[in-house]
Amino acid sequence: MADKPSRGLVLYGDGLARFINPSHTHLHDLASRGICGFLSLSNSPPSVIAETEDERIVREFAQLLDSCEASLGVNAGAATNLEGQQKCLMPTISERFMGMKAAIVTNHSNLKSFGGKLGFTVMQTDEMLKNKHPLSEPLVDAVTSESLKLLGFQEGKALETSQFDLVFMHIGAREKTKDQMDIIADDIEYINGLVGRIMQTVSPGSEIGSRLHLSLVMSYGAVSKDDDTSLSVLATKDENNSDLSLLFPRQSYTMKGGNPRNNVRHHYPMLITQWQYAVTRKDMAKTFSFEDFKENGGNLTIPADRFLHEVAFKLWKAPKYGA
User: Fold this and answer.
1) pLDDT in tens, 142-184
2) CA angle 100, 101, 104 (to 5 degrees)
3) Which of 62, 121, 243, 273 could cysteine-pair with 71, CB 3.0–4.6 Å?
4) What does the pLDDT read at residue 82?
């Protein structure tokens, strides 16, 4: 545990996990330095009308924030009437986590509305940059610099105060202004570049490195019935032997308050790596991949709705979750 509260930066690659390849060296380097695991999601709700991509984006992000109830009004359009507003009322992020100041950087209109309702400061990337950087400066350099400034990290130093305790950067849901695969390629290269630039800035032993808690979360996006279910977090040991399976306790991510969780999706979880110099543990994973995390990851699987609680603990804004 750090001797001062950390400040958190979460890079969330929405729908980008399935497109990671060996060329994304910065993602793999981070995985080799940090602690890796999975965040389990729930299945999309049964409906006569198929879930839209915008609805999926809000629903899965809501699970990261443990705010699924609040997402119902956004996705159903209920926030336009009094009944919907009443159903979606819940404490703000500051009220839930000991005055925590948090921001979301996203270009997705529904997420901006959703985050604002939860008490986050919401901004687009260009609003964060505010024309402070020359056009000749690479975008990843400018975004890295400004995101760290929001957390009170500047010129290699950790300032005594910061505008925010936690910043989420949502990447992967831009307007489809060109070919879909070109957009995905741009997004995955962008987040790979961000990770590389951040790790260069917060080198081990630096003042920033000891105070920045970095999380990289990558999801698979929409999952259909035709997708390969081999990417499963279920324990494989004797899973086909129903008699022996009774001897093994239920995995903790399938439980809540001592009761089984309903509607858990066991395949295509979010992949997560976390790193903070001299604070986070290091496991045996060497690449940012499902297979490596399952074989060598140190964090196994936790429900996605516990993620924010775990991060808030590192920021001294919540009690410890789990062991």
Assistant:
1) 999 999 999 999 988 999 999 999 999 999 865 555 567 777 8
2) 125
3) 62
4) 41
